[in-house]
Write a structure and sequence with these properties.
Sig_transdc_resp-reg_C-effctor, alpha/beta, 8 helices, transcription cis-regulatory region binding, phosphorelay response regulator activity, single chain, 11 strands, transcription, 2 domains, DNA-binding, Arc Repressor Mutant, subunit A, Rossmann fold
């Protein structure tokens, strides 16, 4: 998980922003492929996105709406457009702030720091809400699994099972470890209950094209591939 992801087609400005934020100790990444910004954001899983509005192919508002389908990451729009309509549009599209070009590095850093504090101060040991494995993305907050252009919603137990398997990518997880993860003060999980939940989860994954995603290792447990 990086700190800041910059989506800006002006390479010189992008490098200036990168340098200004890096000086403050932030881990910064600049976009490589402006044709598939959502994929890059998901791969880097940043704490904050700086999004230009005037971009090739699609504008920043479009990419913001696409990212919002997967992540609740804060997004600051940066643009030379300073009319009220664009600012209102940025708010309506889920933007967290708006900076008009040209701007000073000090103002940018101050806004970035304020939003990061506001978003993450409740938990200094913040864990990612997104887990990726190959082409599979799991959003813990939304309790959804995404694969290519399809998604499926998970129950509480299915989400816990999926998370422990995604956290142990390509490693066998024993039935005992999964049961321990599922077993809380409210509900006792038996061997049979686990089997039922695994089968239901498999059917949901099958429905979005993830056939045989969860494999059974006889006498050992389960593994995703």
């Amino acid at each position: 998980m990086i700190d800041i992801f910059i989506v800006e087609d002006d390479k010189d400005l992008s490098r200036e922003i990168n340098l200004a934020l890096s000086k403050w100790g932030y881990e910064v990444k600049e976009v490589d492929n402006l044709e598939d910004i959502t994929k890059e954001v998901l791969e880097n899983n940043p704490k904050l996105v700086l999004m230009d509005i005037n971009l090739p192919s699609h504008d920043g508002f479009y990419w913001c709406s696409q990212i919002r389908n997967f992540l609740k990451v804060p997004i600051i729009f940066i643009s030379s457009r300073d009319n009220d309509m664009d600012i209102i549009m940025s708010i309506n599209m889920g933007g967290d702030d708006y900076i008009v070009k040209p701007f000073s590095p000090q103002v940018l850093v101050a806004k970035v720091q304020a939003i990061l504090r506001r978003t993450y101060s409740y938990n200094s040991n913040l864990k990612s809400d997104i887990i990726k494995f190959k082409e599979v993305t799991m959003n813990i907050v939304e309790a959804k699994v995404y694969y290519k252009d399809k998604s499926t919603e998970l129950t509480k137990n299915e989400l816990k099972i999926m998370k422990i398997l995604m956290d142990n990518q390509e490693k066998i997880v024993s039935r005992e470890d999964i049961i321990e993860e599922l077993w809380d003060s409210e509900e006792f999980i038996s061997e049979n209950t686990l089997t039922v939940n695994i089968n239901r989860l498999r059917k949901k994954l099958d429905s979005i094209g993830l056939e045989e995603f969860i494999l059974t290792k006889k006498g050992q447990g389960y593994i995703i591939r």
